[in-house]
Structures are given as structure tokens and as C-alpha cells.
Amino acid sequence: MSDIETYVIKFSIYAAIDGGLDGLARAIHVVRKAPIQFHDMAVIDAGKTKEVSLRISGKKKDIEWLAKKLEKVVEVLEVKVQKMPSEVAIIAAHT
Amino acid sequence: MLVSDALLEALEREGLKVAFGIPGSANLGLYEKIPDHNVNVILMRHEQGAAHAADAYGRVKRKVPGVAFATSGPGATNLVTGLATAYMDSAPMIAITGQVPTAIMGRDAFQETDVVGVTMPITKHSLLVRKPEHVTWAVRAAKVISVTNRPGPVLVDIPRDFWRKDIDFYWPSDEELLKEWIPGYNPTPPKPNPSLIMKAAKLLVEAENPVILVGGGVWWSYATDEVLKLAEILMAPIVTTLMGKNAVPADHPLVLGNAGMHGRPEANYALYNADVVLAIGTRFSDRTVGNFEEFRKGKKIIHIDIDKSEIGKNIDPDVGIVADAREAVKVLREYIVNALKFKRDEEVPIIKKAKEFGEYAWEILLKERGRGMKPWKVLKIVREELPADAIVTTGVGGHQMWAALHYPVLKPGTYLTSGGLGTMGYGFPAAIGAKAAAPDKPVLDIDGDGSFLMTSQNLATVKQYGLNVGVLIFDNGSLQLIRQWQDLFFGHRRVGENLAYLPDFVKLANSFGIEGVRPENYDEMRKAIRRVAQGEALVIDYIVDPDIMVLPMVAPGKVISPENLILTPEQAAGITV
Asked: Which position has the higher pLDDT, B231 or A2?
């Protein structure tokens, strides 16, 4: 049985100073280097923050490592990881 | 107040009074105001050197990052290698770059580069100042981020048209800064989890052969004394990573030296054969342990690190403690002593075995081989002649590995090397930065011919500012480690390792107004090193036989175990990498 599963990582980026693009770009740099498969991403403007949902697949250990790396990004306020069936993940990532 | 004055005032208030850099059109507005402030700017001859000097300044000072100034475009991109070097070794530094004016930003203006974008993956943080009044906030944030938690480099990019803008100077409080500017950043590391401390303590006291692996984090967290005290309670050996070599005194009876690909045999023996490894402030680099899975077998791992993303990244620990190293080790020791009432009276058995293995290996390794003065004998002279608190920097290559093996660090904080990125050219500008940070200490750059040549233009800076450092060049006319790898693992096909047409390093030094010597025997070498110890700027051209390989070594990809140690070139036969 494959140990690859689908997850949604949700995180907030502090955007009050620069609009949040730099924080988002920095977060994407972190995701690029993670040993995961990227599916898609949604970003919603919430005033002082940008709310990001990231749908990815990978091993639990690597997903958790990615979440820890994202928490280190200075603009990132909070990171939540949810494991879910892939069909549900598609919906969750976009709501 | 003008933005330029506000930035310099901010640097002064943060204690950042030394900067290394080169002016250009995008930061001339900043340079214009330097004479009005107590900020000493040292002109380097290439921005890479400015970054390395700032990095080294921060490594020596720890809580005061070095500062590098550069203009936009090529000035800023020339900092990139230095920023990556600092990032990989967790060294605090701040780069302040000029940017093209806001009106033409993004239009491919002359000397425009998106340096914030370029440096995102190789800095702890980078930011563009988007409003003139943000400049003091940016400097405060850069300082806090660079020196707290796991230290690292921060880049602040400032558009050229801001320098002469008039603003009301505002100095944000710590609370304001953290709440309004960087609310996602917590400068306070978490406290060690008590239940994990108890678990770790139990493993350590029940272990037959515990070994402490010290990384660079021990230096950054001021944990040296706590680590030594814990080792003395456990009577366990300390081995180090290359960065950890800078964190513990080599003459402590429990310190076995640095482990790794070119580690000391006794250290590698102990680390590989430990039943419990307590790793402190290290990321378990492949250069330290080799093959992760093989290394992990048959031992319990306790990993203490301030950066939670390091726990389990390369090696899955049995106990992972996210905390400041000094705090965690202190709590761990107190629990072992006070709650478990434990103290070992005799050294753990692995120390004797490791030393026996070391004696066996060194007898082979130190046999006379090659022509001329031997690197290990020269480095012995260096150690004998330099005072304990002298600072040594290194470039990257064969000489760096020789120094790792044969130059014992007696006082923590006095050995600066590019361990993570492995940046050739680091050693010489780093020596300049170290000298600026500690003007009363002798500073020697142990360098290679190839490595020194990459940043040697900064000899002019040494002369101009009287930043007297010595340079000991291992001159073997080749990229020695490349040659060695080609000989050992690539069928003796030497390609691109021959440094033909090297300059005469003595004449090169002379051309910058600096003395140079080429010792021909050990006595002359000793006299030359003594001159450096006495504070002279001196380039020492040490001619080394290129056929003397840096051994021991472990082939890349192999687990770093006693069985895999290559002690003679013949032992490498048949190894594929």
C-alpha cells in the first residue's frame, strides 16, 4: 500500500506591510524544495492577511516537514495541515 | 530627517557600527551621509568579499551582525554567494542594498535586479522598503531576525529615490515591531519539553556508550560550558561537526575532535559505534554522517535543535527536543544530576576503543609521504605559535580539510570556515571581517591557492585600513580536492584541476604593499607564523606537494564508519561514487 496521501496545508500570510506577495513567493520557494507533489493552490485576500490553501500529496513525514518549514517563513502566521481523500481535498483547497 | 540619516541612525542605535561594502549609484545617497554618523565603512574590492567579511564579523560577535553595503544590480548579485554562505552556516548578517528608483522599478532599469526575489531561498528574510518612513522598522526587524532563534542573513533593499526623502524619525519599540511589522516571527525559542527531557535523560543514563555530537548551534546558543558539564557527568566523549569544531575546546579530555567525511578517525569511530547519540545544534549533514539510513542503524538518537524543521529532516530521532541548546542541555543535566542522582565515575568504554583505533589510523596516516614540508607538521607549528585566542579562517578545499584534521581549536569562537555551502574564497575576506570584529587578536587565513585567488583582491583592503591579517597559502598548483577525487574515484582522469599560471603570491602581496614570504623549511615557517602572531600582515606562500592526499576520508554516499575510512590511496581502489 502506498504511503503517499493527499493533504491540504492552509496558512496565513501577513500582508499589512507589503501586500503579501513577497511572503507568498517565499512560501512557494519552500514548497518547491519539498519532496512532495504539488497539485494546486488558492489565495484569498482577507485584509491584513492572505489566506493560502495548498493541495499536495506526499508522505506524512515530508508533509509535516514542509509545514514546519512554512512556519519559519517570517510572514507566515499560522499553518494547519489536514489529510483528506483526494476528491475532498480538491473542494477543501478552494473553499 | 533624511532616510539616509535615519538608516545610519538606526544602525548606530542597533550597535551596527561596522559595515563592509562598495558604493554605487543606488546607494550613493547613503554613502553621502556616512561622515555624519558613527558607522565605520570598510571598502572591500568585491561585494562577495563584503558579504563574507560581514558574515565573519557576525560569527565572532554573535549578537552583533556584520553589515554589507552594495549597490543595485551587479553589486547586489555579487552578494549572493556570501548570503548563501551565511545562510548555510546560520551566521547573522545584514545586507543593505540600493535599488533603482521606484518610478522605474520593474522596467529593466540600468543596474536593476530583483535582489529580494533572488535571495529569498538563501536568506532568513529579505525585504524591499516600500515607504521611506519604513526604514527604521526595516533595520530593527533585520537585526532581530538575524540574531535571534537560529541566526541568519537578512537583506534590506532600499530604492535610490528614498535616500533624500525627508521623514519623521520614528523608533518602534520591540512590542510594536513584533506586533505591527513581523507578527509571524517569534524571537523567543520554545522551552524544552519536560517529558522529552526525562525521556532523553533515561536513554543517556542507561546507555553503555553515549556520544555527544556537537554542531554549530552550540556556539550560537552560548552552550559550550553546559555541554562540557553534561559530558563530564556522563563521562561521554564529544565529537563535533565541522561547524561544531568552533564550539568546544579541543584540549578538553573528553573531546575527540571532528567527525565526518574528512573527520578524525577516533571521532568517527566513537560516533559510529555509539549506542546513544545526543546531537546538539546540528542538522546531521551528509558530510558528518554519510549515508543517513546506515548511520541510523543500531543506535538511539536524541536531537536538540532550535529549528523544529531540523528534527527528523535527515535523521529520525528517538527523542527530538526543540529548544535553545544551552537551555535544553542545562535542564537535561540538572534532571540527570538532581532527579536521577546519576554521575559516572569512569569514562565510557568507547573512549578507550576510539583512541586505540585513532592510534592505529594515525600511525598509517602520518607516515612520511610526498616531498617538502608536510601539512600536518606545518599546522602543528601554526598551533604552537598562535595564541589560544587567535582567530583562524579557512578557504575551501584540501587545506580546509587539513586544518579541520590538524588545527585544534583551543578557544571556542576562533575558527571560521564555510562548512555548509563550501565556498571557495571565503577565508580571506572572512579574516578581514574577523579582524574588524576583534582587532586585538591575531587573525590567520589558512587558504588554498585556488581559494585565495578568488578573493585576493581584498589585499588592498588589508593595507588601506591596517586590518593586519596573515594568509597561509597551501600552494600546490592545483585544485587539490578535485585532483584527489579524480584520482580516487574518477579513474585518475585529471581534468580542470591544474592551476597553471598562478601568480607569484609573494610578488602579488608586495604589489599591494604587503609583505610576503616563501618558507623553505620548518624553521622559516615558524618565524613567519610568529610574525602573524605578533600582528603583522603577511602572506605566506607554502609550497605543498600536490600528491599528498588529504586523508583519512570516506567516499561520498558511504556511511562514515571505521570500516569505510580510506587511510591510504590504495584502499580507495574499486570504490565507485
From this structure: B231
Give residues with Cβ within 8 angstroms of A5, minimum separation 6.
A57, A58, A59, A60, A83
How many separate domains does chain A show? 1
Q: Could you give the residue ranges of the DSSP H alpha helices within B290-348?
A: 292-296, 325-334
Domain with CATH 3.40.50.970 in chain B: 3-181, 370-547
- Residue A60 sits in a domain whose CATH number is 3.30.70.260
* C-alpha to C-alpha distance for B246 and B56, rounded to whole angstroms: 13
Residue range B248-278, pLDDT digits in tens: 999 999 999 999 999 999 999 999 999 999 9
Q: Round to whole Å and give the CA distance between B378 and B92.
A: 32
- Average pLDDT of chain B is 97
Q: Does domain B3-181 have CATH number 3.40.50.970?
A: yes
Nearest to B184 among A25, A33, A75 (CB): A75
C-alpha cell at B529: 607564523
**Structural domain containing residue A36:** 4-93
Architecture of domain B370-547: 3-Layer(aba) Sandwich (3.40)
Query: If you search the block for the grid coordinates 541568519, which residue do you land on?
Result: B152
Q: Write out chain A residues lying below 8 Å of B145, CB-based.
A: 74
Predicted pLDDT of residue B369: 87
**Right CATH for B194-355 from 3.60.15.10, 3.40.50.1220, 3.20.20.70, 3.30.43.10:** 3.40.50.1220
Provide mean pLDDT across the span B465-474: 98
B308 to chain A, closest Cα gap in Å: 7
Give the B-side interface with A, CB within 8 Å: 116-117, 120-121, 124-128, 130, 134, 145, 180-185, 307-309, 312-313, 316
Contact B120 A29 (CB under 8 A): yes
Provide the pLDDT confidence category of residue A89 given band limits of 50, 70 and 90: low
CA distance B340 to B69: 53
Region B284-305: mean pLDDT is 93
Distance from CA of A95 to the nearest CA of B (A): 24
Cα distance between residue B238 and residue B233, in whole Å: 12
Q: Where in chain B is the domain with CATH 3.40.50.1220?
A: 194-355
DSSP bridge partners of B156: B96, B127
For B21-31, what is each residue's pLDDT tens digit? 999 999 999 99
Q: How far apart are CA B440 and CA B454, in angstroms?
A: 27
Nearest to B145 among A26, A65, A74 (CB): A74
Residue B455 grid cell: 578573493
- The region, left, alpha or beta by phi > 0 then psi within -120 to 50, assigned to residue B466 is left
| pLDDT tens digits, one per residue of B129-139 | 999 999 999 99
Q: Tell me whether residues B130 and A75 touch, CB distance under 8 A.
A: no
Are residues A22 and B180, on separate chains, in Cβ contact within 8 Å? no
Rg (chain A; Cα; Å): 13
DSSP state of B366: T
Disruptive mutation site among B90, B115, B127 for chain A (greatest number of A CBs within 10 Å): B127
Q: Does A59 touch chain B (CB under 8 A)?
A: no
pLDDT tens for residues B492-519? Answer: 999 999 999 999 999 999 999 999 999 9
Chain B closest-CA separation from residue A54 CA (Å): 19
Residue B61 C-alpha cell reads as 560577535
- Which residues in chain B touch residue A18, judged by CB atoms under 8 angstroms apart? 127-128, 130
Q: Please give the distance of CA B568 from its chain centroid, rounded to a whole number.
A: 29
**A65–chain B Cβ distance below 8 A for any pair:** yes
